[in-house]
Amino acid sequence: MSILVINAGSSSVKFALFEFDTLRSLARGLLDWPGDAQHAVVTLTPADGNPISRELDVPDYRAGVVAALEMLRTSKTLGDGILVRVVGHRLIHGGPQIRRPVRIDAAMKDLIARYTHVAPLHIPAGLEAIAATESALPDVPQVGLFDTAFFADIPPAAYLYPLPYAWYEDWGIRRFGYHGTSHAYCTERAAEMLHRDPSQLRLVICHLGQGSSATAVRGGVAVTNTMGFSPLEGFMMGTRSGTVDPGILLHVLKERGMSVDELADTLHKKSGLLGISGVSSDFRQVEAAAAEGNDRARLALDVYAYRVRAMVGALAVTLGGLDALVFTGGIGENSAWLRAEVCKGLECLGVHLDASRKGTSYSLGDESAERGESRRAKKAASPLFWPDVDIAAPNSPARVLVIQTREDFMIAREARRMVLEKMNAECGK
Ligand code: ADP
Predict the structure, then answer these.
(1) Has 48 been annotated as catalytic?
(2) pLDDT at 187
(3) Which of 64, 193, 297, 406 could be stapled to 277 by a disulfide with Cβ–Cβ 3.0 to 4.6 Å?
(4) The whole model's pTM is what?
């Protein structure tokens, strides 16, 4: 029996399959539309095997997900068919009322749809993935984890914008926060790595991926996140601008003849790393271009690092100090340059990197951070052992942790917990 996790993005869908009893990873999958909306590609990678890919002729997103689920369910690569016990979805927005994972039913789908205006690319994708799962696996319960849930209790001073109060009261305009599943996972994992109770820790967690945000966490509870009403606020990202002066937006609308749609497209898809570098939205490619002497690529990286550093400083001050700075997400986990650049100047907050690791771009998958048989043995013995590392200098008052984010694992674990709780409740009746 297995748990299927679905992470529906605007133009691709990630899958992960876990064994129900042990939470051992069985396989990962990706459904993508490289270029042509009619032709999707599904790639399935078993935990202990090579990827297999198949092209699909599908008319739309929902049909693509149905076909991918069918491929996953019947794949001989994974044995004689997969029996899915529960499906867990990563969902971007459930509003400030939702604090925990939920069972997805008609009322829940209505609630999710109510926030479409806030994340117009992601929410319809999540609802399509739910509908596809209902038709492909009709008798399997579906559970949702919301990115906003970790921020349900941020204080009013952190969630109110300095705009007319009626905008908040009448239109619900406030800050929400995103990437909560990743930030919640890193909070738990940081406490575990530091052998401290989460209630004792002040953390700033930087999730730096294609989308990026940072969270200040005190005592295991989120105080604020850099994304706000929408996932456009905060850090500069792959193609998103992050925070910019709203005066600029008024200027281009009024004086430069830009339409609202063009402006939205620019802020979402043509800004950030891509906008400044003109090279790519992909951090690795921008790093490569900068290394070859491309000045705008170098500038894009410098702006990126400057903004992360400034925000880490601001968040640490809201916490009154810092016990650990956490890097996660594709960029945070992999770019040693970025981590060193962000930490430069944070010595005043007690952040000191281990000089021997500065500039070493090591993948968290390799063995360089903690060598030897003991690590390999631990990894083989426990499916829940992740290769996370502390890269602070031994005498650094604040620790610097690189944590491989495991949103899919978190979703699988919570979905399993809900199934077991329901079974226990039924047994107790
Ligand atoms: P998503 O937000 O889509 O989940 P990821 O967390 O996978 O994205 O992060 C993708 C980003 O991570 C890309 O910009 C990619 O270039 C960057 N990245 C991945 N590996 C590396 C690496 N070795 N060095 C620098 N950046 C990397």
Answers:
(1) no
(2) 97
(3) 297
(4) 0.89
